[in-house]
Design goal:
Number of helices: 8
Number of strands: 8
Strand content: 15-25%
Low-confidence stretches: 1-24
Distance between the termini: 52 Å
Structural class: alpha+beta
Length: 269
């Protein structure tokens, strides 16, 4: 017999996928959908970063893992944002998307590394070509129920959120691995205090929360989906060993059943 947590999870996702026959219906399909969304978000960031860093030449490091001494001489924010021994974003992308740990396993064997990198060359070139279609100044991250509504303030006409906007790749992963290291513009994430929407629209939203709550004896979960538009940037030249920078430009808020029914948006200067 399924436990309460499993049943609640199923009910949550019924609201997400709707009732059409092509949507995932089983818990297994639902979990797969979540993982694919997370993987697509990471793929987008990777390809945007590869495009941003397309001017970096890694040819001097192909025979070895990225050593500390080499790193001091030729390191940059693009290589600093990936884990050692991977030397380039495209190289780490192959590992992250395919789950091929060959370079990591053979990091102490320069002869094997050279052979593996030769084998990976076609995949790396394919990633670099694909990255040309990803504008690093306008990348998109889809957040699933990653923002919670506190309440609605009727006099001011504001939906109270009071939450940081995070781009997150944590949690369980499927057939992919890794993540890019980055920091937020200005050293901290964007914070959303509230959102302007009319009382009529707010009432519709709260009615939706009530109609789709998972347990009649408890308050509904008031969560929203988001689409976060962000730019990837390089730090100042004198901080070449720093990390890539995420600059969040816009957050769009949606009903928690997908990314079609929009609640509102906030554009950051």
């Amino acid at each position: 017999m399924r436990n309460l947590k499993t049943i609640k999870l199923a009910l949550l996702f019924i609201g997400l996928v709707g009732c059409n026959e092509s949507a995932p219906q089983t818990l297994e399909d639902i979990e797969k959908f979540k993982l694919e969304t997370k993987k697509d978000n990471l793929r987008t960031m990777f390809l945007g970063a590869i495009n941003l860093c397309s001017d970096i030449d890694y040819s001097n490091y192909l025979d070895n893992p990225r050593s500390n001494e080499e790193y001091k001489k030729g390191g940059n924010c693009c290589s600093n944002s990936v884990q050692k021994p991977y030397i380039s974003l495209a190289e780490y992308y192959v590992y992250a998307m395919d789950g091929d740990r060959s370079i990591s396993i053979n990091s102490d064997n320069p002869f094997k590394l050279k052979e593996i990198r030769k084998q990976w060359q076609e995949k790396i070139e394919k990633a670099e070509e694909e990255a040309k279609d990803y504008d690093s100044k306008a990348l998109v991250y889809k957040g699933f129920r990653n923002v919670s509504v506190n309440t609605y303030d009727v006099p001011s006409g504001k939906l109270i959120i009071n939450q940081s906007i995070l781009i997150d790749f944590g949690g369980r992963q499927g057939n992919w691995y890794g993540k890019l290291d980055f920091r937020y513009k200005g050293g901290k994430s964007r914070h959303v205090k509230d959102l302007d929407i009319s009382a009529d629209e707010a009432e519709k939203l709260f009615d939706y929360f009530e109609e789709n709550k998972t347990h009649p004896k408890f308050p509904p979960s008031k969560q929203l989906n988001t689409i976060i538009t962000y730019a990837l940037e390089k730090p100042e030249p004198d901080h070449r060993l720093g990390l890539l920078i995420v600059n969040v430009k816009k957050v769009e808020f949606y009903y928690p059943n997908g990314w079609d029914n929009k609640v509102g948006e906030i554009v950051f200067k």
